[in-house]
Amino acid sequence: MRHLQLVRTVAAVAGVFALSSVVLAQTPRTATVERMYQLDCGEARSPDVSQWSPGSNQGKPVVYSDHCYLIRHGSDWMLWDAGVDDQLVALPNGKEVAHKVRGLVRRTLAAQLSEIKVRPDHITVIAFSHAHFDHVGNSRLFPTARWFVQRTEYDAMFGPDFSKYGFVPELYASMKSNPVVQLDGDRDVFGDGAVRILSTPGHTPGHQSLLVRLPKSGAVILSGDAAHLRENFEARRVPSFNADPVATKRSIEKLEDIMRAEQAQIWINHDRSQTADIPDAPQPIE
């Protein structure tokens, strides 16, 4: 009798674990966001692309695209990156900001949000791939959004060595008043697997990327500045000013592993040849 009771108990426990495994396996893979928008968040120009591609194309000028992404998930709007400061729209030739890079704005982020009837105070969640000027330029527009940031990035942004990483504190100083969620690695933003922040340090101490599951396009990785060009991603070229070259290469390998596991596309934010093929707002990406 005892033996029979033990068998039944083991079977019951096994059933619970089996059911839990099914739920855990299905939930994150089936949940998707409703839609996403690619926003034109300016340009970054440099006279020498080789500082991003050591040993290649020395002295060759480059124009990088710069995009932000607006994500609709249930009743939430999430903004990924905040681009070049909208105020530069008044300067036809832009302004040199950091690392001998000139930022330019043709269409303001605020105007593009308005075009799809989204106000800054509608943004409930905000995250930046990192704190360089072309990713946090309009952060002040979203004072009520919950900010997801790696603890190491936060410490570098507000610590004494911010200039070492090419950060410009006046562009993001207001974020200190936002509700902040400091991270120590990956995070499932909404708890259903539809949007995952991926810790990808190297370019800056707390650089991060984003995995978004779209209803029709499938899984997409917004890689931030893990690499600036597709060829750099594939060749493991590390910018000369990156905070940690070894961590950069590890992060690229991590993204490649996730691409394989999730059958995900990767979108290289600054690679114009790729981003040109992705529709800008107001057309949604599903």
Automatic annotation (TrEMBL):
SUPFAM superfamilies: Metallo-hydrolase/oxidoreductase. The keyword Signal applies. GO terms for molecular function: hydrolase activity; metal ion binding. PANTHER family: BLR3078 PROTEIN, QUORUM-QUENCHING LACTONASE YTNP-RELATED-RELATED. Transmembrane segments: none annotated. Keywords: Hydrolase, Metal-binding, Signal, Zinc. Residues 1-25 form the signal peptide. Belongs to the metallo-beta-lactamase superfamily. This is AttM/AiiB. Residues 65-270 form the Metallo-beta-lactamase domain. InterPro entries: MBL_superfamily_lactonases, Metallo-B-lactamas, RibonucZ/Hydroxyglut_hydro. Gene3D superfamilies: Ribonuclease Z/Hydroxyacylglutathione hydrolase-like.
